[in-house]
Design goal:
This protein has 228 residues and is an alpha+beta fold. The chain has helices spanning 38-77, 87-90, and strands at residues 18-20, 26-28, 111-114, 127-137, 139-144, 147-150, 165-172, 200-208, 214-224. Helix content is 19%, strand content 26%. The strands form two sheets. It has a seven-stranded mixed beta sheet with strand order 6-5-8-9-3-4-7, with no helix packed on it. A hairpin with a 5-residue loop joins strand 8 (200-208) and strand 9.
Length: 228
């Protein structure tokens, strides 16, 4: 006599219904993990933490590369000769001297620099002086450390209009950088000077605007390590 078939009831304490496999054996169907269950939340948390760690590692790597580039750039800039451009070449790049607030005659501070043709060398004992005026003048003279020179160099002075210009350049040689009023203390050896030991000169500038009109100004100008 056959035993009566018992119907499976789901509920607390009762597992999932059994199903027949290919061999006729009965196996349990695995239960699906419900969204929002504790196990799902743990898996999501592990994935998010791994992503955060990966972002931190990338940020750290970029910071190391950036700092290495800064250090390398500083070392490269710190080697070799220091060569500063002539003020005429620098004028278009914003590196020219600033506006002079003290004199109504000068448009910029005068620029005094070594001009030996070799970067950072003072062997030739030659300096150049550039002056910018607010109004065009016919001629300009300058007295540098007691020596008067004409600022009339045709190559380095500015363009003239009707015989007048606002930018004047002249040169002084010997200037006295080796054993004179502009004596310079070299930074290395006897003739190598990059400006670490500063030197300045008292400069008097006289501008001629016409037969009966002239103006003058006296100022202290820092000697720069080189125009070229």
């Amino acid at each position: 006599m056959l035993a009566p078939h018992k119907r499976h009831r789901e509920g607390p304490g009762n597992g999932p219904p059994l199903s027949s496999g290919p061999t006729g054996t009965r196996r349990a169907t695995p239960a699906r993990r419900a969204p929002g269950s504790p196990s799902t939340e743990i898996d999501d948390g592990v994935i998010k933490e791994a992503r955060r760690r990966q972002r931190r590692r990338r940020a750290l790597g970029l910071s190391v590369i950036f700092m290495a580039a800064l250090i390398a750039g500083g070392l490269l800039r710190g080697t070799g000769a220091v060569h500063r451009p002539h003020p005429l070449r620098a004028a278009g790049t914003g590196a020219a001297p600033g506006i002079s607030p003290a004199s109504p005659m000068l448009a910029r501070e005068p620029d005094l620099g070594v001009t030996c043709g070799v970067p950072n060398s003072i062997r030739c004992d030659r300096v150049g002086l550039a002056v910018w005026l607010r109004r065009p003048a016919e001629t300009v003279t300058a007295t540098v450390a007691g020596v008067t020179i004409e600022l009339d160099d045709p190559t380095w002075s500015g363009p003239a209009l009707h015989g007048r210009r606002t930018m004047f350049t002249g040169f002084l040689q010997p200037a006295g950088m080796l054993n004179g009023p502009l004596k310079v203390r070299p930074d290395r050896g006897r003739y190598w000077w990059a400006g670490a030991h500063a030197t300045s000169a008292r400069v008097r500038i006289v501008a001629i605007y016409g037969q009966r009109h002239r103006a003058s100004v006296t100022t202290t100008v820092l000697l720069r390590a080189g125009w070229g």
